[in-house]
Amino acid sequence: MIKNIFQSRKFSGLCVLSILLVSVTILLLTNDTIDLFPYLSLSYLRRSSLSDIPISTPISSPTNDSSSPPEPPVAQTRVDDHPIDQGLESDWLKDDKEWNVSLPLDWKRCESPDYIPCLDNTKAIKKLKSKRNMEHRERHCPEPAPKCLVPLPQRYKVPLPWPQSRDMIWYDNVPHPKLVEYKKDQNWVRKSGPFFVFPGGGTQFKDGVIHYINFIQKTLHVLDWGKKVRVVLDVGCGVASFGGTLLDKNVITMSFAPKDEHEAQIQFALERGIPATLAVIGTQKLPFPDNAYDVIHCARCRVHWHGYGGRPLLELNRVLRPGGFFVWSATPVYQHDEEHRNVWKTMESLTTSMCWKVVARTRFTKVGFVIYQKPDSDSCYESRKEKDPPLCFKEETKKNSSWYTPLLTCLPKLPVGPTRKWPSVWPGRLTETPVSLLTEQSGEESFKQDTKLWAGTISNIYLNGLAINWSRIHNVMDMNAGYGGFAAALINKPLWVMNVIPVEGEDTLPTIFDRGLIGIYHDWCESFNTYPRSYDLLHSSFLLTNLSQRCDLMEVVVEIDRIVRPGGYLVVQDTVEILKKLNPILLSLRWSTNVYRGKFLVGVKSSWRP
Prior knowledge:
Blueprint: H1 2-30, H2 42-47, H3 91-94, H4 122-126, H5 164-167, E1 168-170, H6 178-182, E2 190-192, E3 195-197, H7 209-219, E4 231-235, H8 241-246, E5 252-257, H9 265-272, E6 276-278, E7 293-299, H10 311-319, E8 320-329, H11 338-353, E9 357-364, E10 367-373, H12 379-383, H13 428-431, H14 441-462, E11 475-478, H15 485-489, E12 496-502, H16 509-514, E13 519-522, E14 535-541, H17 544-547, H18 553-563, E15 564-573, H19 576-588, E16 592-596, E17 600-604
Parallel strand pairs: 4-5, 4-7, 5-6, 7-8, 11-12, 11-14, 12-13, 14-15
Antiparallel strand pairs: 1-3, 2-3, 8-10, 9-10, 15-17, 16-17
């Protein structure tokens, strides 16, 4: 009898174990939203190869010795590991049967994982009559806009977290080794095992960018990084080590370069987590307002400032703040052969005609640089014997006129009265009334209300109520930035924000620069000048309602999908009507979505590609 009881209990135990195994199997086969065992579940294995499953090892600092590659970071998470808080649903969604219905769209892949529609339009580029002034590096958007989805590079991985990413990135995410060989003697970038490593070198600072930056300030003490100087433009930035290092000094730098034979330099910068954009000083204005930057920097940036009738240097003059500085580190400053002397003489003549004065000229190790200062009043312009270049007429310098606009051949008149003031030292300038609004009473009141509103919204909703993992957010874009209140409210987070001002709306970009933030003009009916997978989070506040009246909402969503990294977020605050149109498109792209308070849609991009 005891034997029968034992066999009966053994049989019961086997039944329980069998039921448990069947239950776990069903769970693994059916669960696609939240993986309890993320690296064992079949839902994960369907989306990733076994070779892509990250491993957890201690972090080690990158070294310059290629023989000892740095180790992978701690606890890498897979691209799709973003559980959404299902408690965010709003009441109006409960009765909407079509809310979670995906549009039946047959998506196609683009050819290249690095596709940038307005810069890769080969048909338009072939039709250009001239390429002498970099016309082929400017924007040429295809019509209609493409609706293909950019594929991922093979073996794409979750980008390394900031600040580790500043020094090293995954090779597989930007598999372009050309710069390693091309700039091997200048310490731009090295390949080390599965990583690209950035030692902090450059064409003009082979001994290290930190030493170079400190020497600039030592040469001219008024260049007080992170206090008087907050917003910098780096022309022809390479892999953006200059701007990346200045972040430690509370300086935010807009690094830019064209998409050219220096393969993927801006892509390197963005993957590192450094603010950057694709642009060129060719025949059209840069997409920035007048009098924006405190300092402009060029280290062998290969721009012929004296060429094209001096227009490139006049463009720098336009975007440089009155009283601001241009740091030019280049061979004509210190080389004495005939060719370099002729360039220097031409530069002297041009800068003198623009009333720029040399405030420092020195040699740094094996290179040299000169620092010019732009005047802060029109008095010098008026006292010139020869009025060449002439002063601009008002219609040539009106607000929001930096979009597909030819370069100036004149000098814009400088601000007068309170608006000519240099902003307060950082961080005071972030919250004080911007100098561009000092003469606009209504603008000043709107600015204060906007700042207060965003401070509360970010604190009460965005940081605590939207199920966003902010520890994984570093590259952020505000698609409709207004006064920059969204970025200002996030200033204490370890991230940066690209503030975009739509060209069809009110021009508030000067205010954003006055606050010590960076931004750019853009028309969202066209593709943005950035590489795919550049940003961790895109934010849109009441942009899409008006935008959908001018262009196809689906094309805008395709562009958002191109820009956001797998695992990244889209946060949209808009009308219920727009959210209802937007959600089915996102679902067709296999994004996870949810809504908070009936007006905040949060989307998370998956790694799915057609």
